[in-house]
Structures are given as structure tokens and as C-alpha cells.
Amino acid sequence: MRRGSVEALDALFELASRLGDLMHTDLAARELTPARAEVLLVLRDSDRPLVQRELADQLRCTPRHITGLVDTLEAGGWVHRTPHPTDRRATIVELTTTGVAAAKRMQRERRQAAGALFRDLPARDVDGFLAVARHVLDRLNHQ
Amino acid sequence: MRRGSVEALDALFELASRLGDLMHTDLAARELTPARAEVLLVLRDSDRPLVQRELADQLRCTPRHITGLVDTLEAGGWVHRTPHPTDRRATIVELTTTGVAAAKRMQRERRQAAGALFRDLPARDVDGFLAVARHVLDRLNHQ
DNA sequence: TATTGTTATACTCTATAACTATA
DNA sequence: TATAGTTATAGAGTATAACAATA
To answer: Which residues in chain A touch residue B18, judged by CB atoms under 8 angstroms apart?
Structure first.
């Protein structure tokens, strides 16, 4: 077996866990959670409004779960629901001004955090890290 | 900012998420969950029996949470509680034979999975990946 | 007075199943 | 008959606060 594989896997999980904790704390200060923040980012990344079903597909979760997330986000003023113009079963979810601002801010902070984490590493090393990560992701996805 | 930083961070989270899903599925087939499996692994890695308080410290969670995890693990026959010989407030948690077998098996499977994921990459690349991961972890831990 | 583990309570993530309205 | 979203229910991760027994 490849030397260092287990260590690499351990480091990967440890890293994800620590970064996840940090994110969680930062989001909590703004009354958000990782799952709810993810909804905002998906809406922000989309070039058009999404229907709840599409949100469920993109977040890989159940429609039922989306109902709850959107309920909370709507109550907090981040998104609002609109009836679909032609399909009366469907509900369009759109970011409010507040939601757009929150998503923008999260994107900016993510860029800054990424920059800070890898700052004093040679570009070559970061590229190598990314290449390995993508290689492993490919393995997982196709097969 | 370092080019590729954001992509590296994204890939890292994606990877952790996919691997986490796989683990979750595998563990569920054995009536375990990630949190409960972690208890077994910590006990297995320790050279001596641990008290619940020590488990909470090592898992970075609350003593209350440990109570629940150990309750379930004990009911399932993976661990058993023993009164501490000298400190009557404390409770020692030890793996049963079943628990030891489960922990061993998880360790073996983790080694195999790690090997499979990184198999067709040059050792140099895996080492580089690990070095970057550890560098970033250091940044997070000390500062 | 401090510590160990517990009861009580609560929020969040996530899922399945049954149901309503609509396509 | 299939689909979108909801109500109902449930398990799991995780936390804080209050408390009893013990150190």
C-alpha cells in the first residue's frame, strides 16, 4: 500500500473538521447554520431563481428538508417564496436584498480564508494539493 | 492571493463530504454511526481504559454527549461501564470483545480505503498532499 | 469549592411515509 | 399516474443549565 495514505486521509478529515467548526462559529454569529448558508450560496450561484425541488437536487437532500430550511430563511428575511407563474404546484425561492448581501459576504470571506490558509505555501504545492484532491474525487465519483 | 486557494478549499470540503457519506453508509450497515465509531476508535487507540470525562476531552464534546453515546454503545454490547476503583464519581468505559473486534475491523477498512484512494498516484504527490494538509492544520491549531 | 456524570431541555441536520394540490 | 411541497414522525449530533454525589 502507498506509504502515507492513512496519514493523508486522517489529515484530510481533521482539516475538514476544524474548518467546519470555524465556519459553524462564524455563521452562528450571523444567525446562520451551514445548511442554511449553503442554500443562500446555491441561490446566489444560480443564474435564475430556483424552485424548491431544484434546491433539493443541488443540495442532495430531500424536498422535505428544503421546506424546513426555506421556512427558517424566509422567517429571517434572507429569502422569499413566490408562486411559480405556470406550475401551480411549484414554489420559487429567491434571495432578498439581505440574502444577496449575506451570500456576497460569505463568498468574500471564503476567498479571504482560503488565501490566508495557503498564503505562505509555494503555488506549486497548492496546485499539487488541488490535483491530488481532484484525482481522488474523480475516483469517488466515477466508480 | 494565492491562485487556486479557493478551489483547493472547495475540493477539500467536497472530498470530506463524499468520504463522510461513504463512511456513514458503511457504519450504518453495522448499526454504528460516525460519532459512536469514534468512541470505539479512541478507546482502542488508548493504552488504558478511559473515564467518560477523558472521552469527552478527546472527542472535543460535552460530557453530556458522551453519556448518550456510551448509553447506546453499552446497550449494543460494544462497551461496558465499570465504577472507578478510587474515584466514586467517575465511570470507566472499556471495549467488550465485540467492541475490540469492531474497532479492529474499522481500522483495517480505513487502511484499505486509504490505499485504494491514493493507489495510482506517485508517492511524491501523496507526500506533498499530506505536507500541505499538515501545514494548514498547524496554521489552524497554533494561532 | 470543584469535578463527574446525569436529568431536562432545545436546536439542528437529515430521513421516510402519507397526503394535498396540481400536472 | 407522476410530481411539488407539506404535515407527521423519528433518529442522530450537539449544546447549555441545573443537580446529585463525591473529591
So the answer is: 137, 140-141
